[in-house]
Amino acid sequence: MEKRETMLELIRRAYAARGKGDLDGLMMAFHPEAVFTLVGDREAVDAAGSIHGQGALREALGGFIANFQFVERRILSELVEGDRAAVHSRLVVRYNPTNTTRTTDCLDLLRFQDGKIVELIEFADTALISDMMSGALQGSGIR
Fold first, then answer.
1. Which candidate, 34, 37, 58, 101, has a CA 20 to 30 Å from the CA of 119?
2. What is the CATH number of the domain that holds 20?
3. Long-range contacts from 40-43, C-beta under 8 angstroms, 24+ separation
4. What predicted TM-score, i.e. pTM, was given to this entire model?
């Protein structure tokens, strides 16, 4: 039970740092050999795919923070088994360049090593992200 709570607390701290735009605080949650994968169609979103290591991860997450503000996150469910966790969240996301805001769900699959996140696989609505970035939905009335 203690390991479970420790893992969930690290995830919550990472989410809080992400919500505040605190890149240093967010990076503290990740193992030096961390891998981040945004699952999706690379043709829809260039950022889809995997990023390996702290340097590349810092650069990518810094870009995400600069462009996408997480206005609100509501955790809908959390599961932990062994060294893995799954978190389903509902997010209110603002794309800063166009000030477009949408609500979407996200699923994070995490694996831990040495008390840090060594792998994060994120399932997000890449079609929605693409639309927000292109401004295609702006003024269309679609939410």
1. 101
2. 3.10.450.50
3. 40/123, 40/124, 40/126, 40/129, 41/126, 41/127
4. 0.88
Please give the structure tokens belonging to residue 31.
Answer: 């193992």
Enclosing domain of residue 36: 2-134
Tell me the per-residue pLDDT of 80-111, one tens digit each, with 9 for 90 and over: 999 999 999 999 999 999 999 999 999 999 99
Both tokens of 107, joined, read 């699923």
Enter the tokens of residue 70: 């997480």
Contact at 8 Å (CB) between 32 and 117? no
- Is pLDDT above 70 for 1? no
Assigned domain for 107 exists: yes
Residue 141 lies in a domain: no
